[in-house]
Amino acid sequence: MSETKNIMIVGVGGQGTLLASRILGSVLTQQGFDVKMSEVHGMSQRGGSVVTYVKYGERVYSPIVDTGEADFILAFERLEAARWISYLKKDGTLILNDRPISPMPVITGAMEYPADISEKICAKGVKLIASDALEMAENAGNAKSVNVVLIGILSAIMGFDETLWQKALTECVKPKFLELNQKAFALGRAYGQSIK
């Protein structure tokens, strides 16, 4: 494979975008790709926007993804999907946790949460894989495992042997949280395989 592939993981602070990118990076490295990752964020500790870039291929020179270059975007929340959708290629895929997380201006009543975000994204003609990743995470045992549910969905779409993903989980997740995250991954992967 000579062409570089680009993945963006977008969410808000505290959702685990960095763990998701580490798991993904581990799988890609095991496959022998050159991998570059970069995390960019605002006030991540306060629920600010967070984006992680993951680029891979035979040779990667920069981790930054420009507008219209992302093959995949994993969006942990609807507003973040809308914020970054212009970065997706025309034939790219958006994997979305279709649950809103209200930003501070909405929580304080200064703004209303925008309506019909998913419909507006679909109107752009992108390939959208929307799921209730939060419900799957809760079923796995912890709402905070949305990140690993979405990685599970991505794993089904990207391919690569499942043993590579399991090895990456073992490497990247603390042992006391491993079983929970394996369940979250399995639910996401099963969902991804059901819609492929």
Largest sheet: 6 strands, mixed
Q: Please, how many domains? A: 1
What is the H/E order? Answer: EHEEEHEHHEHHHH
Order of strands side by side in the largest beta sheet?
Answer: 2-3-1-4-5-6
Per CATH, the class reads Alpha Beta
Rg is 16 Å
Helix run count:
8
Roughly what is the average pLDDT, rounded to an integer? 88
Number of distinct beta strands: 6
Regions with little confidence, pLDDT below 50 for 5+ residues: none
Helical content stands at 40-55%
Strand residue content? 15-25%
Q: SS-based structural class? A: alpha/beta
**Based on the structure given, which CATH architecture is correct?**
3-Layer(aba) Sandwich
Task: Supply the CATH superfamily name.
Answer: Pyruvate-ferredoxin oxidoreductase, PFOR, domain III
Shape: globular
Instruction: Output the CATH topology.
Output: Pyruvate-ferredoxin Oxidoreductase, domain 3
User: How far is the first residue's CA from the last residue's CA?
Assistant: 22 Å
